[in-house]
Specification:
The chain is α+β, with helices and mostly antiparallel strands. The chain has helices spanning 8-11, 55-60, 79-85, 132-151, 155-170, 181-201, 205-218, 223-235, 239-252, 257-285; strands spanning 14-16, 22-30, 43-49, 68-72, 93-101, 109-121. Strand 1 and strand 2 (22-30) form a beta hairpin. Helix 7 (205-218) packs antiparallel against helix 8 (223-235), helix 8 packs antiparallel against helix 9 (239-252) and helix 8 runs parallel beside helix 10.
Length: 286
């Protein structure tokens, strides 16, 4: 594809930060007008042009291809497209390359090329401009849609939704009415616990440990958070602390099959570790 005006800034590639397991780059093909760019809540009219038969289109882009469609910023339907739209002005058009990582070694990739055009957008609002009820409603939507993505196996998308909700919740901490506080604490604890579940699935035990600990700081008897922190600690080799969390789950829910299985797995790993240590010591002294 050719740059629109031949200027250096029209053809320079730039990285777009995204949540998904992808590397995204964009470069401007046509410049727009005005100084405003989309913000949270902006309804954008966009056109995505690409090969609609490419299976990556349906996997990565939940929007019609080669047709104008609306997108609401901050709703987290597709963090790739929202990331590309950030900083764009009305009338601008970008070439976008999405390189999707296909292995944990990050050596194999699949590549999708497209162009994204922003026709226009409505004024958005930053979080400080939203009312309590608006933020609370947005938190509930993100939480619900995060659950949908989790059940669909989209861990990056689910984590993105839960993170958007937790960031909004931070802005409400000092203004929550007293009668709402128990429910607010419960929802925030669930958000952190759900984020921990995503992070475990994504192989991020350190992040999962932090998220589960935040959840327990709000609700110390949250069994989901205790279980997920126990798993994270076990993955990190902190067997003693992991056992304490898993046993606490069983104190609160004696019939918890996941906690029982996790405790058995933990004991097996400890035996294997002791065996490896014994063999190593035997070789050392023989």
């Amino acid at each position: 594809m050719e740059g629109g005006a031949g200027c250096d800034d029209l053809t320079a590639w730039e990285l777009v930060p995204v949540w998904q397991c992808s590397v995204v780059r964009r470069r401007f093909l046509e410049r727009g007008s005005g100084d405003e760019t989309p913000r949270g809540g902006s309804v954008c009219r966009i056109l995505i042009e690409s090969d609609a038969t490419d299976p990556l289109c349906s996997q990565l882009l939940p929007y019609p291809i080669n047709h104008w469609t609306p997108l609401t910023m901050g709703e987290g339907e597709c963090d790739i497209i929202e990331g590309v739209l950030e900083g764009m002005r009305a009338g601008e058009r970008c070439e976008v390359v999405i390189s999707r990582l296909e292995s944990s070694s990050c050596l194999q990739t699949q590549e999708l090329r497209l162009t994204l055009q922003l026709h226009s957008f409505t004024p958005g609002r930053d979080s400080w401009e939203m009312s309590f009820d608006e933020k609370w409603g947005s938190i509930a939507r993100h939480k619900q849609k995060g659950g949908v993505r989790f059940r669909e196996g989209d861990m990056w998308g689910a984590a993105h939704r839960y993170s958007l909700a937790t960031r909004l919740a931070v802005t409400l901490q000092r203004v929550v009415p007293a009668e709402w506080d128990p429910e607010f604490q419960r929802v925030c604890s669930e958000l952190h616990a759900n984020l921990a579940a995503c992070q475990l699935r994504l192989g991020q035990p350190h992040n999962a440990l932090l998220s589960a600990t935040r959840a327990l700081g709000l609700q110390p008897c949250c069994t989901k958070a205790l279980y997920r922190r126990g798993l994270a600690l076990s993955m990190l080799g902190e067997f003693k602390q992991a056992r304490a969390d898993l046993r606490r789950v069983l104190e609160l829910e004696p019939a918890s099959k996941p906690a029982l299985q996790a405790l058995r797995d933990l004991e097996r790993r400890e035996r294997e570790q002791r065996g490896q240590l014994a063999r190593a010591m035997s070789k050392l002294f023989n």
